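Before relying on records like the one below, remember that each one covers exactly one chain. Contacts with other chains, cofactors or solvent are not represented anywhere in the record.
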Amino acid sequence: QVQLQESGGGLVQAGGSLRLSCAASGRFATINNMGWYRQAPGKQRDFVASISRGGSTNYADSVKGRFTISRDNAKNTIYLQMNSLRPEDTAVYYCFCNVMGIGGTWDNLQGQGTQVTVSS
């Protein structure tokens, strides 16, 4: 069974920075895309950023130029460096991945989420 463990959330003032981490553990063959969604109170879940195994990245327009996603394939871990944070970035951030199991089937997984709160 594959699990995703997020860390790094917290409370920060506007303009500050935080770094989120997400590590995949368990038995699997390989992981393709990994990334982050976020969900603010009372709002739908929105895509934030993703990165392929080869390092290709995608970002939501709202975070371009402020957030940077990176990946360490040897550790099955991704990072989200968040700079110039704004109050509207306040949300629960969920890690996701596209993983191939030992049996060769693909599955989409999501972590439990980590809270990011940006005060004005």
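The chain has a mean pLDDT of 96.
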